[in-house]
Amino acid sequence: MKIAVIGTGYVGLVTGTCFAEVGIDVTCIDIDQKKIDNLHQGILPIYEPGLEEMVTRNVEKGRLHFSTDLTEAIKDCDVAFIAVGTPPGEDGSADLKYVLAVARGIGEHMSSYGVIVTKSTVPVGTAAKVRAEIEKALAKRGTDASAIEFDVASNPEFLKEGAAIDDFLKPDRIVVGIASDRAEEVMRRLYKPFLLNGHPIIFMDIPSAEMTKYAANAMLATKISFMNDVANLCEIMGADVNMVRRGIGSDARIGTKFIYPGIGYGGSCFPKDVKALIKTAQENGYDMQVLRAVEGVNENQKSVLFNKLSQHFGGELRGLKIAVWGLSFKPKTDDMREAPSLVIIEKLLAAGCIVMAYDPVAMPEARHSLGDTITYAKDEFEALIDADALLVVTEWPDFRAPNFEVVGRLMKQKNIFDGRNIYDASELKDIGFVYHCIGIKT
Ligand code: UGA
After folding, report:
1. Is 353 a catalytic residue?
2. Could you tell me which residue ranges the UDP-glucose/GDP-mannose dehydrogenase C-terminal domain spans (predicted)?
């Protein structure tokens, strides 16, 4: 089989590389020449554990190629994945201009039957627009080209940043929206190597597949906001959210995963997809009330840690030195998009604090938005020197069990505000720390 993946962003690059890993001939296309040049040299545009080695290995094996030339890649490929960005427009709806431009390009160059698959997260109805765009481009080429048969399909991606390779190679399910038996057959053949662990490939109609992606992310975002609400109430009522979490998680209908309270969800997916689904519903005369509340809770939650700090210091924050551990929206990624750290730091700076931050990988990325407004430490301990408080913002493994004796010695005041509940409250109290976390009155 021969496939093309258009767009070498997060999803495209992981998709292309993982298909190559099982022996499929893959060409990854991007219009950004610099990105393609870098990829040829093994320089990746994103940080993802294990991806760099996998790219290099598959390039060396001659089954993973990078190019800016859509024409060659599309000519006789069996499947073309559209994995370009769908940035949110001003009103929150997903902007499809890149997706449709790629569809047009495919129509201009395809020469035989192929399945054109939308992999980017796209609103319900997009595959139909892709089909129309390709048909238009084929028709422009004349009668021979108009006779070329093709199918469109929707194959949403469920991988998580930081665990993308494992998620792709060992998926718990693959969802494919199709409109013909022929497309189903091609997609089943393509995914066969990934289904060895017995997990299913679920075929459905195209609009349902498109909706599945949004519904999945919206449900997960809802779980988090619900738990953040519960955590805030636990604090008020003197309950411990960690115990409540264990108590409810053991009910298999609720489950133990994704019920960790924190400082709000971030990243490029939940915020964008929740917004887009609310917007799609609105445009169609329906009000997604639950999701609007999910968004509201999430916005408030980003301020919770700052509010605790402010309360502790009686609102007198000017001139305080604050250490921040973690900047990325979650561990194992350098992604700073919609990271709660940005909101927290903005508030700290506005209140006149001096911020010294450390993140194991996201500091170069963070510099793009924060510039020199904060100081970047060379390690987690340097960030603590003379600090009046430590804010734990991202739960990187590096921060889980620091030497608290050293931590206490470096800090001016032993105050820890833990936005991810990674420490033991009584242990820290015993060694003289003031400790605040989420959903537990300390
Ligand atoms: C999310 C989904 O989990 C993937 O299935 C989906 O494919 C992806 O979006 C996408 O649409 O591309 P991702 O954004 O990489 O993946 O990150 P998650 O691990 O889901 O975390 C999202 C946010 O939720 C993070 O800010 C994290 O800190 C927060 N979170 C997660 C919590 O606050 N509590 C939890 O219990 C779990």
Report:
1. no
2. 323-425
